[in-house]
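Appendix B. Raw example, untouched.
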Amino acid sequence: MDLLQGTLDMLVLRTLLAGPLHGYGIAKAIRGASHEALQIEFGSLYPALKRLEAKGWVASAWETSEHHRRARYYRLTAAGRKQLVREHSKWADFVSAVGRVMGPVPEAKA
């Protein structure tokens, strides 16, 4: 399933609300939470993480992973929490507006 532009940032922020994760952990958490519907490509994820870090919404540090390897872990900052609230509100408004346009599922005619 393709993501709407800007949606990946919101999903990353939401995922990090649960606690710090490395890039693979973020992708895996999004995939699991979406019941495998969203497959996050690392070519999209890592630029998003850099962008979020540049905005001050996430911070990162090198740590040792559960597999005893060095990995960069990302955590949500206070500014990131505030941004997540704003993004969630905008998303809820968007979903509501699309729902009004789409209405109920039309019946299939043979």
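End of appendix B.
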